[in-house]
Amino acid sequence: MIAQLLHIMDTIPIGVMILDRDMAVVSWNKLLADWTGIPSAQVVGTSIVDRYPHLGTVRYAGRILPIFDAGPPVVFSPQLHPHFIPSVRIDGQQRILQTTVTPTTLNGCIYAVVSIQDVTDLMLTAQESRQLYRMALKEIEYRKRVEDELQVSSERVRSIVDTVMEAIIVINTDLVIEEFNHAAEQIFGYAAEEVIGKSILLLMPEPYHSEHGGYMNRYLQTGVPHIMGKGKEATGLRKDGTLFPVQLGVNEMQLGNKRLFTGIISDITERKQAEFVLEEANRRYKSLSFTDGLTGVANRRRFDEVLDREYSRHTRSGGELALILLDIDYFKSYNDTYGHVQGDDCLRTVSQAISSCITRPADLVARYGGEEFACILPETDLRGAVTIAEKIRQTIVDCAIPHDSSKAAAHVTASLGVVVVTCTLDQTCEDILNQVDELLYLAKSRGRNRVEYL
To answer: Which H or E run contains 108?
Structure first.
């Protein structure tokens, strides 16, 4: 059992070392040896300060040594102390480390248990979204507490395993649970004695329940890993029946003729919530960046993007693309007469009137600029486009917005230009915008409150 638990410690994804009051290394686990290239035999019994002089400064030793006199545990955050034990990852990147130092008492002596986690990937991900940096930081600052000296003792090794934040579950080739640490009890809601000797499938809902057995059988038969040695997101099943997202990693270890599999499981509920908040924020930002703040219809940026896309699509399909450009008649005089606040109300009312006439999902209404609005009507012939334009003109008239300074009518009206084109590579979006603009000018020159088309 002792050997099995020591093997478990060497499979967990956390670097662990134990220091005595003189800062001498009492224990140095396999992950630290892999990270630094320094075998345990070379570092145990030596001063950590001799190997890493910066750990002897007030910045580090000044915070660690008080632990031996009943001082509190210490957290060296990755923001202020990113390279506690300097080491380079396989991709050449300097590791960013989250380090926790916790006191433990054994045989009347106090030792400092140092647990170190590589949080490089999480830190880089958090930096990409500074708006949610603090939320992401909560996940990467999980405390990795270790409370007992690591030695060849099942109880002492188990106490270290039981202080880490991740669930550590060991199963055999029959999928039967043999080890279930304290974090696993907290995450899944079972006491260890309730699950040891039972199938790991107890902790999985469908479809993971059925899939996991298949993964294991294929691995045992073929040796080809599916989740072995890889990280994977899955769904866990608590004792109370609730489901929650987890990050799962599985590693194999061989003890004599016995094959065991260690699963490292993290509850990533907070991370998923942060990702959802980020996605919602991005969605809202994108929506706002394409919406006119005053009228609520699409803005010029969105109009240009959709017109360019639809022009390219119609060039390929050969379909007809219609464009309507309209201008509120004598709108400057309206603002001069009624003021800009009422002018804004007028723009909103006109935009709503236009939108009520545009019903197909593919059609677009946009504020083109100032008092100008535009409509993109994909796959629409001239007859259909003119019908819609005339409906828009009449709907604006029906709003009966008073306009005493208009020379066209006693109420607000609009002039409209309509163009329908068969898109070709010989033309551009700018060409059809020039055409419809000329038709709008023609409508104005012929008395306004009318539709001109080509």
So the answer is: none
